[in-house]
Design a protein that fits this description.
alpha/beta, rod-shaped, 2 domains, 5-stranded mixed β-sheet, single chain, 4 helices
Length: 246
């Protein structure tokens, strides 16, 4: 090979080396440049992601706060509902008590009066012992209510053919005795004084007295028997007293 050929190839390889070196520099510069751009883009993306994450955390915190506030409101509403139910129960209890008290008051104020059926049953029992003599009276404390019951009973005794006062003016108005309900005053023997304490003894009821007891029992009245002063005729007296408490 000639010297010219060798120089040619030498120059070619030198030029090629320079070109390759230039390309290597360009490639290095490109790598560095694009690496910087890539890093910048990635840094921007990372910044945006971090910002988004921060915003998401803030929103989550707000949501949690709203949820907590909602829970507190729900708890408050539940407490209000419980308090309202408690107050309602108290109001219902007070209303029930007031209604019961009203019914008791109405029952206390309601005058005693026998129904038609009671009157029929009452007369039926008394009619088994007609012409029985009986006095009538009422207590001053019983007032008009006791007097009105006396008038009704007097009519029923007449219907049963008992020997009773013909009109209310012939009945007694007692200031000297207190009777709750209805009592039969049974005169004692001559010389007896009911104001003096005596040994407690059972009263032996006769036929007329047991008939009276049965008649009043059939209409729901507990007839009381009470020893009384001696009277010349010895006739017992039926006394209508104050209305008993229900």
């Amino acid at each position: 090979m000639s010297v010219e050929s060798l120089e040619f190839w030498k120059n070619l390889f030198e030029i090629t080396g320079v070109v390759l070196l230039l390309l290597t520099f360009i490639a290095g510069a490109g790598v560095v440049g694009f690496s910087r751009k890539l890093n910048a883009v990635q840094a921007e993306q990372l910044l945006q992601f971090d910002k988004g994450l921060t915003d998401a955390k803030l929103e989550l915190g707000k949501q949690q706060e709203r949820a907590s506030n909602a829970d507190a409101r729900v708890a408050g509403l539940e407490q209000d509902v419980a308090a309202a139910k408690t107050e309602m129960a108290k109001q219902q209890t007070r209303a029930a008590t007031a209604e019961r008290d009203l019914l008791e008051l109405q029952e206390r104020l309601k005058p005693r009066k026998l129904t038609d059926k009671q009157s029929t049953d009452f007369v039926a029992i008394l009619s088994k012992l007609p012409n029985t003599k009986l006095k009538f009276g009422h207590t001053w404390a019983g007032g008009d209510e006791a007097f009105n019951l006396l008038q009704q009973l007097l009519g029923l005794f007449k219907a049963a053919n008992w020997d009773v006062p013909k009109q209310t003016s012939e009945t007694s108005n007692h200031l000297d005795i207190q009777v709750i309900g209805v009592a039969l005053l049974i005169p004692g023997p001559e010389g007896s004084d009911v104001r003096k304490p005596e040994p407690v003894t059972l009263i032996q009821l006769n036929t007329a007295q047991t008939t009276l007891q049965a008649a009043f029992k059939t209409v729901g009245i507990d007839l009381q028997f009470q020893k009384w002063f001696h009277t010349a005729d010895g006739v017992p007296e039926l006394v209508i007293g104050s209305k008993p408490n229900p």
